[in-house]
Design goal:
six-stranded antiparallel beta sheet; 8 strands; DNA-binding; homodimer; 217 residues; repressor (chains A, B); globular; binds manganese (II) ion; alpha+beta; two-stranded antiparallel ribbon
DNA sequence: ATAAAAATTTAGACTAGTCTAAAAAAATAT
DNA sequence: ATATTTTTTTAGACTAGTCTAAATTTTTAT
């Protein structure tokens, strides 16, 4: 049984493992967890002893099968709860992440099974992020940040980063939500802002925004 | 902001305060929390500093207005979640208490407000226990343990103790659920077992069971 | 190849919560 | 009224998680 804190570290390590195939560095984890490197060193020793990660001094950390499976269960819970909050309790999509950060630690396999059923076995959460199934299988949609596309790109929005409430409010305002058709018209050299068409409107978005919109490729 | 542990102590102290108008003793709290008296002394000092209780050395503890209000919010959350689990997720009434013990600590006033609304502002939980409203107002139904009634008593079940899964399974089996009509036919001197009629069936129940069935008076 | 800079680990301290054992106070019995 | 028992508090230690500061290792720059 993992503690709250251990679960949060493991989740962070999982996410960092996904973006980049190399070992995860101590400072990256510290940054992600808003903590200090010294604290991370202590924790990765602990998680290593419990075989959720493999750890080589000064080199970094790799998540194990067991660790990945555990992390995916936490992510499953997080995304199911977010779906519940939006679909059933009628929260706005920008209000649910912080609450799900708490709810994801509730321990009860039966609860998650029944919640999944109550929601009709959703495949993705309100932000378009895929929900791992009960076996930890997650179908990674092939997507890339809009920012990395070339002018002329036409496709649809798969998902958006869900942890920044202000970003989500903004995206909702301009109609940039998962499933929407989107086109990249031009890229401004100077600040890498993009001219796009989304929700049948033309507008300009900043690089920072474009990096957090994942589109189908 | 209270910690998990502080919330659990406060809740225990509230419940102990309700049953009996005297100060709550260190050993009573230790018993209720399954911990040692020395640990309790530490914690009541802390809760006292934060003005949730008043504490006099060697004498005991009294809960403050602020402490009562805080405790009632936790109880409100606990009972709303239990109601959700039974009404919406179709849990059995004996499966929900332990999960609600976790869920009651989730911090989000908006979540509780929306949950309350989603459930149709229920007045009592699956075990018949009253749900405090958003202002912490709780309507204490006038009830007493069936065990304390005299033969000839006829009335209905108000609530049952909810923390023992085996008791709840048993009560469900014999049809002794909140709202049901119940009559006390006779009391056995030797072991204080009761002959009752409930759910249109006559049966004998032990003292231990009769103490945990609260009936209208 | 060596020096400087950056990243990581270790050492030691702190808080929250818990425990056991001992001391002190209160309650009870003679 | 005194002695015994019970309850409560204190003292000191332990774990989880965190921090700062110092030591060590690795990387980068000259
Ligand atoms: Mn989220
Ligand atoms: Mn999400
Ligand atoms: Mn309960
Ligand atoms: Mn209940």
């Amino acid at each position: 049984m993992l503690s709250f804190t251990e679960e949060n570290y493991l989740k962070a390590i999982y996410h960092l493992s996904e973006s980049g195939s190399k070992a995860v560095l101590t400072n990256e984890i510290a940054e992600a967890m808003s903590t200090k490197a010294a604290s991370v060193t202590d924790m990765i020793k602990k998680l290593s002893t419990k075989n959720f990660i493999s750890y080589e001094k000064y080199y970094g950390v790799k998540i194990s099968r067991q660790g990945k499976s555990e992390a995916l269960m936490i992510i499953r819970k997080h995304r199911l709860w977010e779906t519940f909050l939006v679909e059933k309790l009628l929260f706005n999509w920008d209000e649910v992440h912080d609450i799900a950060e708490q709810l994801e630690h509730i321990q009860s396999p039966l609860l998650i099974q029944k919640l999944d059923e109550f929601l009709g076995f959703p495949k993705s959460d309100p932000h378009g992020e895929p929900i791992p199934d009960k076996n930890g299988k997650i179908s990674m949609p092939s997507s890339m940040p809009l920012h990395d596309q070339l002018p002329g790109y036409a496709g649809s929005i798969v998902s958006v980063k869900d942890s920044d409430s202000n970003l989500l409010k903004y995206l909702n305002r301009i109609g940039a939500t998962p499933g929407k058709k989107i086109r990249l018209l031009a890229k401004e050299e100077y600040d890498e802002s993009l001219e796009i068409e989304v929700d049948e409107k033309r507008l300009t978005i900043s690089k920072a925004v474009a990096q957090n919109i994942l589109v189908a490729v």
